[in-house]
Specification:
elongated, 434 Repressor (Amino-terminal Domain), 149 residues, mainly alpha
Length: 149
């Protein structure tokens, strides 16, 4: 369990309150930001950009008015809440799978004496990753398991 942070601003304290009971590590992963970035927001040493405020709203259900100013209800009833534009979609990835695919593709390229520019290599690895995720999700659906992002 991560050690408790000492918020230096009222916003930081509300952000911590908003994410609980989710652990900091898990919440940072949900938002697609490094744990240190979230830690800086929760200490009050930095302020999240607009797209992250929307993502926080989406993940926690808190009112942005409450989060930013402390005014109003923390989690207003859904009937009264104004529709909020969805944050830009972030792509979460399985780090171990991505690492294995990069390593595999580099080894295969070297064995076949193929040299690709970094951009093409990245595109190929992402194609392999997307294909792998599709296959895993198809298998999970067959077994009624949880999908992989």
């Amino acid at each position: 369990m991560a050690r408790p942070l000492k918020p230096e601003t009222a916003f930081a304290a509300r952000l911590i309150e908003a994410r609980l009971p989710i652990e900091r590590d898990e919440f940072a992963q949900l938002l697609g930001v490094p744990k240190t970035t979230l830690g800086n927001w929760e200490r009050g040493r930095a302020f999240p950009p607009e797209d992250m405020l929307r993502a926080i709203r989406q993940q926690t259900g808190v009112s942005l008015d409450w989060l930013i100013t402390g005014e109003g209800e923390m989690r207003p009833s859904q009937e009264l809440a104004l529709p909020v534009a969805a944050p830009p979609q972030r792509h979460y990835y399985n780090r171990a799978l991505m690492h294995a695919l990069i390593k595999l593709y580099i080894e295969e390229s070297r064995a076949m004496r193929i040299g690709l520019p970094a951009e093409q290599l990245a595109d190929k690895v992402l194609e392999m990753y997307d294909h792998s995720i599709e296959e895993v999700n198809a298998l999970m659906e067959q077994g009624a398991g949880e999908k992989v992002a």
